[in-house]
Design goal:
The complex is a heterotrimer of chains A (about 425), B (about 270) and C (about 325). Chain B is of the alpha/beta class. Chain B contains 11 helices and 10 strands. A 6-stranded mixed sheet of chain B has the order 6-7-8-3-9-10, sandwiched between helices. Chain C is α/β, with parallel strands linked by helices. The chains are: A mainly alpha (about 425), B alpha/beta (about 270), C alpha/beta (about 325).
Chain lengths: ~425, ~270, ~325
């Protein structure tokens, strides 16, 4: 057995798959220890905040210490952030529309462009053929351009509690900086937020662990049923085998996914927890394990060591557990791995159809996909809401299949090098 | 020579596989009477039904028709208990030593199992150890070298010898040896045959030797049965059947085996025949 | 002395296991086969006789590797050749190989004639199908196979017929030497006899010029080949004519092997079979001295000290033992 284990870990495919899977598993275990936030806590007002570090504006300007840094490219960066190539072109388009000769407009000369804009922009002016959203766009653009070239800083004012009049409480110079470490409230959202305003990463880690649990439960159920029926049918044969094969064939011809949908639907939303969904998946996916185990057992049944065990007077149970099961154990482990990965996929497919576990307690990978789809993340280009989920699903199934192939190469003599 | 007592007797034994048009008479109304302490060979080519007959005798498959009498008493093995009882009297050695062992069990486990089966479950371990050592020395192996070994660490010849040691521990009345030497090298074959002969001489066991090799059958057995298409075509003492065959099939079989002292007559087969 | 068809000098090949250990299954084997002669190779399983058969083709694929020595077929040294050249120009044309389960080589979805077309066209793509059919038909007729077989699928033929079909196909290009590795041991005795008769007929007709026949069944070998070579643990231990080797072996191992022959002849019941105790050495770490020393009755401390060389006798026999012929004969008499 030690030798076999050694061989298993000599297989590069198995080791690669194992490392990926172990990494996912470790992340799922360790991440909640360091980030103990509840996974479905709504933190953002609004949906699909892009990934990045969020710094409290109030804390930044008010309660942090200001440093003066004279950085030569600061002004250029500031202008570039507000006035990109697209904005410059839009300004040019507007100027042309209001009658400025095209030859006089130079989009590369920022100062000239902005002074032309100041002179000619009039929000009350109606320009024929301009759609409303464009009008609003130019209003927003104008607002953001205000004071862009200003050399002055800003004045901070707060209303006086008694009089209600604004009083200056401080100034912000253009060269003022804060150290982000001194800002009291900072939150990094590496994968942004989802449609409900929840941290996608925390949610994803939790969802992965729930999905793995569903896969494991479903895989164990399917393997257990498949193994039991396969062993009994294959070893006992005769009428028992006929009945078992009849049921198995029945389940084979009914597409299991349709069955899965029907069962999930009839169970009802309230009762559909992750364990319930896993059980339903498990009870619909044992068919292939049964067939595979049965055929293996049939070929083992006529081996001399089984005959010899019978001659030694051993009971049916003893023969199955001692003389047959060990021979197919490696095969069953491989089937289990495949069952787990396909159960994870099945859960995802079910959830995308809206038949997954109920939504309020635990996220699953499928549910995250479902939410992203309902709130049109893919159309709005909010990739962080669905792409990481896809990657995780792909990695889990890929690593499991890789481990399966690796095991196959060790245990299947026909595939050995 | 005094009349020997009947040990295993078959009357009209038949085994049919399949139904209707696929019906296949594997064993076709076979009668025999094996006496106690005899070595009997059943010789047949592949597909002659000799292995099916062996499995029927062992009670591993049901008979379609016919009766088996063990020590003049009708065999009844319908219940699991009766089967267990019957199997203390009849045991087997199979053709392929490599598939005869459960590769997950150590050799000690196999032997302890045998001792338990003979009702030695409560014996002290020293006594069991003594029995196992005796069984191993019967087949010229040292038990001390085999403890904690798995079957696949041994050679085919050693494995087959351990199978004989197992029989020695079980001490059944009948041993059914189904081609025990066909997967073994010529040198180890002689050892196995010697041990089977010794087993008979020491314990008075009836040995049913099933083989396709007519030379082997002649060497070990007192009586030879020639089997073709599920029927015994010729039977008698080894000298009668092998040296003075009467049936055409037996003659052909003997003729087709290469020999060394006599000329091997190749002209009996015509390669131009269809 | 006839023309030498196959000459092998000090051929050594090895297997490399998955754990990168070397197993020298063929160790410095030299042999010669003359035109019209057949050579038999006998030995226990694992003695390297099948590996020798594979090695003789000069076409190596993992885990078998060539180490040293040379193979000369009809004056042409094939050891230095590129594997592709060997495959295209030597295999089938010069040397043919029949493994034990040769009949399994037939593709169950392919008619026999297509199988033969594949074989012939692999060596010469220009030959037309009609020519191949004519050649195959004529050859099959001579070898006693009905021409209807050509249009059949393998499943429609019996095991013996399939084996004979494959053997007939293997010599369709008239190779100089045929290597048959247990070609009849999976068959029943009657089919075996037919295969043997066909092999002999092929030699007589000149479809092959020489033959190497490998089997562990000594009575068969005695009846088929002119010379017998006994192998033990990758080495040749005795070589001589069939009659001499079977009835008058010199080497203790050959002696033991010949003493275990069982044939259904009168007098067999009174013979005492010899049994050789022990198991062959592990070829990953073969013993320093004589490889048979551990199992030999007549072993002396001298035996285990140095590798033993072949001794050549005048009667064209050779054996690998430190004792002289007389010493061994005396030992056998006293035994």
């Amino acid at each position: 057995m030690k030798h076999t284990l050694q061989q298993v870990f000599h297989s590069s495919k198995f080791v690669t798959g194992f490392c990926i899977f172990a990494a996912i598993l470790l992340t799922v275990i360790i991440y909640p220890i360091f980030v103990p936030n509840p996974p479905l806590e709504i933190i953002a007002q609004g949906s699909f905040f892009p990934p990045g570090t969020y710094v409290s504006t109030y804390d930044t300007v008010f309660s942090s210490k200001a440093y003066t840094l004279n950085l030569p490219d600061a002004a250029a960066k500031r202008i570039a952030a507000k006035l990109g190539d697209k904005e410059r072109q839009d300004i040019k388009d507007y100027l042309v529309l209001v009658g400025v000769p095209e030859a006089e407009i130079d989009t590369t000369n920022t100062i000239q462009l902005l002074s032309q804009w100041d002179k000619n922009y009039d929000p009350s002016k109606k320009i024929s053929g301009m759609i409303f959203s464009k009008v609003r766009y130019y209003e927003r653009l104008n607002k953001s351009l205000t004071g862009l070239l200003s050399e002055e800083g800003l004045i901070l004012a707060a209303p006086n509690i008694d009089t209600g009049a604004l009083e200056q409480i401080g100034t912000i110079n253009l060269a003022d900086y804060v150290n982000i470490k001194e800002v009291a409230s900072v939150r990094t959202l590496p994968l942004g937020t989802d449609n409900f305003g929840r941290d996608v990463l925390t949610e994803l880690v939790r969802a992965t662990s729930v999905s793995l649990k569903i896969g494991l439960i479903a895989g164990l159920i399917a393997t257990f049923i498949g193994l039991t029926l396969g062993l009994l049918g294959g070893y006992i044969g005769g009428t028992v085998d006929d009945v078992i094969m009849f049921i198995t064939n029945l389940f084979t011809v009914i597409p299991s996914f349709v069955l899965l949908i029907l069962i999930s639907y009839s169970v009802g939303q309230e009762h559909r927890g992750p364990v319930m969904v896993a059980t339903v998946i498990g009870f619909t996916s044992w068919v292939w394990t049964t067939r595979a185990v049965r055929s293996q057992v049939i070929s083992l049944r006529n081996r001399d060591h089984v005959n010899l065990s019978k001659l030694s007077g051993h009971s049916l149970f003893h023969i199955i557990t001692h003389d047959i099961l060990p021979y197919i154990a490696s095969y069953v482990v491989m089937a289990l791995i495949l069952q787990i990965s396909s159960a994870i996929l099945a859960e995802a497919s079910l959830s995308v159809l809206g038949l997954g576990p109920k939504t309020s307690i635990d996220p699953t990978l499928g549910l995250m996909m479902n939410w992203a789809m309902i709130y049109q993340a893919q159309i709005l280009g909010k990739w962080w809401a669905y792409f990481p989920v896809l990657i995780v699903i792909a990695l889990i199934t890929f690593s499991m299949n890789l481990m399966n192939t690796g095991l196959d190469q060790v245990f299947n003599p026909a595939l050995r090098d | 020579m005094t009349e020997k007592k009947s040990c295993l007797k078959g009357v009209g034994l038949t085994k049919v596989f399949g139904l209707g048009r696929n019906k296949n008479m594997a064993v076709d109304h076979v009668d025999f009477d094996f006496a106690e302490g005899e070595i009997v060979s059943i010789v047949g080519e592949s597909g002659s039904g000799k292995t099916t007959l062996a499995k029927m005798l062992l009670g591993l498959i049901n008979t379609t028709e016919g009766e088996i009498y063990f020590k003049s008493k009708k065999r009844d093995i319908r219940s699991q208990k009766a089967k267990k009882e019957y199997w203390t009297n009849i045991q087997a050695i199979f053709q392929d030593p490599f598939s005869s062992y459960n590769i997950f069990n150590k050799i000690d486990a196999l032997f302890l199992d045998c001792i338990n089966m003979r009702g030695g479950k409560k014996l002290p371990y020293e006594k069991k150890l003594e029995m196992m050592t005796e069984a191993c020395s019967f087949v010229n192996l040292k038990f001390a070298e085999l403890t904690n070994k798995y079957p696949f660490e041994l050679s085919g010849g050693q494995m087959q010898r351990l199978m004989i040691a197992r029989i020695f521990l079980l001490k059944p009345q009948i041993l059914l040896a189904d081609e025990p030497t066909s997967m073994i090298d010529a040198c180890s074959r002689a050892t196995i045959l010697d041990m089977l002969l010794k087993l008979r001489n020491d314990t008075g066991m009836t040995i049913i030797f099933i083989t396709h090799d007519i030379g082997l059958a002649y060497f070990v057995s007192d009586k030879v049965f020639i089997m073709e298409h599920g029927k015994f075509v010729e039977s008698g003492t080894a000298d009668e059947v092998i040296l003075r065959p009467k049936e055409a099939y037996t003659k052909r079989l003997l003729n087709d085996v290469p020999k060394i002292h006599e000329e091997w007559d190749l002209s009996t087969v015509d390669i131009k025949a269809k | 002395m006839g023309k030498v068809i196959l000459e092998v000098n000090e051929l050594t090949t090895k297997y490399v296991t998955r754990f990168n250990e070397d197993v020298y299954a063929v160790d410095h084997v030299s042999l010669k086969v003359e035109e019209g002669k057949s050579l038999g190779i006998a030995g226990e399983s694992g003695c390297g006789k099948s590996t020798l058969a594979l090695s003789l083709m000069g076409y190596y694929f993992a885990p078998l590797h060539y180490t040293s020595g040379e193979i000369i077929i009809d004056g042409q040294n094939i050891t230095g050749m590129h594997p592709d050249t060997v495959r295209k120009n030597i295999l089938g044309n010069e040397i043919a190989y029949i493994p034990q389960a040769a009949m399994n080589a037939l593709n169950p979805t392919q008619k026999i004639i297509h199988f033969i077309e594949d074989v012939v066209q692999a060596h010469d793509p220009k030959v037309s199908k009609k020519e191949i059919y004519e050649l195959a038909r004529e050859r099959f007729e001579v070898l006693g196979l009905p021409k209807e077989v050509l249009q059949r699928y393998p499943v429609e033929l019996s095991g013996g017929m399939k084996q004979r079909t494959v053997i007939a196909t293997s010599v369709i290009l008239e190779p100089k030497i045929l290597i048959a590795d247990e070609p009849s041991s999976a068959l029943d005795v009657t089919s075996q006899k037919m295969v043997i008769k066909m092999l002999r007929y092929m030699m007589e007709k000149g479809y092959v010029k020489a033959m190497i026949f490998i089997t562990h069944e000594l009575p068969l070998l005695y009846n088929v080949t002119d010379d017998i070579m006994v192998m033990y643990a990758g080495q040749i231990v005795e070589k001589g004519s069939s009659k001499q080797t079977v009835f008058d072996p010199i080497h203790p191992y050959a002696k033991g092997l010949m003493g275990s022959i069982i044939v259904p002849e009168s007098g067999l019941k009174d013979t005492k079979l010899t049994a050789i105790p022990g198991t062959p050495p592990n070829l990953k770490k073969p013993p320093e001295g004589c490889r048979f020393a551990e199992r030999c009755k007549f072993v002396t401390p001298e035996c285990k000290r140095y590798p033993v060389d072949m001794k050549y006798l005048e009667s064209d026999r050779s054996y690998r033992c430190i004792f002289t012929e007389e010493q061994l004969r005396k030992a056998y008499q006293n035994d």
